[in-house]
Input
Amino acid sequence: AETPSHRFPHSCMMLHMSGAGEQSDPWLGRVVDGRFKVEAFLGVGAVGAVYRAADLQQQRPVALKIWNGRALNAQTRGRFAREAAALMTLHHVNIVDVYSCGMVDDVPYVAIEFLDGETLEKALDSGEPLDSDLAFELARQMLGALAYAHGLGVIHRDLKPDNVFLVRGEGGKPVVKLLDYGLAKFLAPGDDPAKAVALTMTGMVMGTPLYMAPEQAAGKAVDARVDVYATGCMLYEMLSGQPPFLGETNMELFRAHMMAPVPKLAEARQNATVAPALQALLEKALAKQPEKRFANAGEMLAALNAIPEPAVKKRRVSMDFRASATSGDAVKGKRPNTALLVMAGAVAGAVVLRAFVYFFLR
Output
């Protein structure tokens, strides 16, 4: 059965849930900006608490993210402003919609589309591959949204399955919604709402190690090709059940991103035949040097659409898209827990691995 955890509109921010203290939560029952009545607490992350609220003007549910008062510093406030501004400029069917943002009692908030479904992270939790047709469809939707954002000069920088939400569309078809533009980078001069705030320090790593491009792990300048790399990681995982690069520590994982060859999908799917064009696409998307990748999501989408079908010939295993799509705990250990591969360890790992970066990215 569906559980509340599957209804998070912004699950990437849900670092933990707690029912304790909700009765004393000052936001519950309050009407924010004369429009959004706060109804229930959903979760809290590094920079904001998220509530379900009712939009009294439009008569619809919304997810209300309120800046976390316990993180009162310029960096977190800048990141909050960055996400709100990024999403307010992006209007695409596959990107979560922002209805409003503002200030209440000198606390910033953003009202976001309330999504009912599950994250791609949850759908992959069994460690089993998705049906290849479904994987291709989800990848096309992701790339379409990214291509749109890249065209406006906005890159995501933190793409991962937990930031890809799946909702049920017409006829039960899964529809992708990209979440969490809190680490978005604005490529056009003057477009960054947090440009006066130093959100990162020199050499600091921002992102999620399992899906992080080598240059991003090294704290170097990034562009749209980091989103291409992350999408390549997710496409490989959807088709194989595992991310392409693994490691027991951030150090091992970064070393794999920087040094290990792109694994053959056919070796991960021994019961399947993989089209050479698909393997070539994965290898280009996951190239160590940025200049050898697709220049942006639009290029990768065109290459994906050009792959002849079927790209993966196998005994079909259907995936019923539903909120309880995962199988039992017996296989959950196969897939690494991304929560354990946190950003803090990435900072130290990037510094130690600069020698590898210089050799492989020069």
